[in-house]
Design a protein that fits this description.
The protein is of the alpha+beta class. The chain has eight helices and 18 strands. It folds into two domains: 154 residues, P-loop containing nucleotide triphosphate hydrolases (Rossmann fold); 102 residues, no CATH class.
Length: 350
């Protein structure tokens, strides 16, 4: 995340300072502060109902804020005293459904937010973003004749056409099947990068956030639980809630011993320093199983997922359950295995 110095020349694309938002009498966003770097893609990640879409609508100017301030491109667009209308915020919006105008063809949908003057420049811009989104061959088609993926591509082109200061994407891939979701995700990411446009992507999909974002903001119960790079949030979660929401993992009771901690998996290396009682966060890919027939863990279940296999194992004495992700052959169900941890894990003090 950005830590903008007020004296630097380039302001954050978006900056929120202590923003709270309500629905009726219920506060759903609690004093959220975050910054989006120019040209960066920031994922706003959280479970359903945590306030992600409400916060996105507040940034867009479609929902009032209760307190705090919203700054876009260095301009304060909302605070306790003023609110700039949505159409003057320089924001492009790509909703979950394409929300295209059914009476307009693709070209007219893309051109909707462009100035009426300068017909040649307008046409050139429509062609440019249509090619970026992969819909240049559909400019004369009507939305009702397009697939869901095509409609989302048109919505992306329409959002990019006016050269907004930031594009806001609200669960843009949620309604698509897995294969189409992956390909469209690549199209969107490449188009945003090509235009050097900052973006905020709302999603509840951890894999999606980790794969497309430069920065991730984890929103839990309407508040920022952690913000940082995908690698930092995944490898060094600051709480058990973040650890269990962002990727798979198990929390194990442990005793910190400085550079290591001792848990049911033995002595494990930790990030930084550990001391006293706490928890360690162990990811499945860090667990290595040795099928020697005499280990302390019994194999409960083996699940083939395609590129790898997930094995679920239970400690014979404590009942602690650990999972490991592996390629190649997996231990047999009912077998006994020994386990060890590779790499460093995060230690969370009590």
């Amino acid at each position: 995340m950005s830590h903008q110095n007020p004296r630097t020349a380039t302001p954050d694309a978006v900056r929120l300072d202590e923003v709270s938002v309500s629905h009726g009498r219920r506060t759903v966003v609690h004093a959220v502060s975050l910054a989006v770097r120019p040209g960066a893609i920031t994922a706003l990640l959280g479970p359903s109902g945590c306030g992600k879409t409400t916060l996105l609508r507040a940034i867009a100017g479609l929902h009032p804020i209760d307190s705090g301030s919203v700054t876009i491109g260095g301009e304060v667009v909302a605070n306790g005293r003023r609110s700039v209308p949505a159409e003057r915020r320089g924001v492009g919006l790509m909703p979950q459904e394409g929300a295209l105008f059914p009476h307009l063809d693709v070209g007219a949908n893309i051109a909707f937010g462009l100035p009426r003057a300068g017909r040649h420049a307008r046409t050139a811009r429509v062609t440019e973003v249509a090619e970026l989104a992969g819909v240049a061959h559909l400019l004369h088609a009507r939305p009702q004749h397009l697939s869901g993926g095509q409609q989302q591509r048109v919505a992306l082109a329409r959002a990019l056409a006016p050269r907004p200061r930031v594009v806001l994407l609200d669960e843009p891939f949620a309604a698509l099947d897995a294969g189409l979701r992956s390909s469209l995700r690549d199209v969107v990411t490449l188009a945003l990068r090509a235009q050097r446009t900052a973006a905020i992507v709302v999603t509840h999909d951890q894999a999606e956030a980790l794969s497309i974002a430069d920065d991730i903001v984890v929103l839990l119960d309407g508040a920022v639980a952690q913000a940082g790079s995908p690698q930092e949030v995944y490898s060094r979660p600051q709480s058990g809630h973040v650890a269990q929401f962002v990727g798979e993992g198990v929390l194990l009771d442990a005793v910190g011993n400085g550079a290591t901690a001792t848990c049911v998996l033995g002595e494990v290396a930790v990030h930084g320093h550990s001391a006293g009682r706490g928890l360690v966060v162990v990811r499945p890919e860090q667990v290595v199983a040795t099928a020697d027939g005499t280990g302390a863990f019994a194999v409960d279940r083996v699940t083939f997922t395609g590129p790898d296999t997930m094995a679920t194992m239970r400690h014979n004495d404590t009942g602690v359950v650990v999972r490991t992700r592996m390629s190649g052959s997996a231990p047999a169900v009912g077998g006994r295995v020994g386990l060890r941890v590779t790499g460093s894990v995060m230690f969370l003090a009590d």
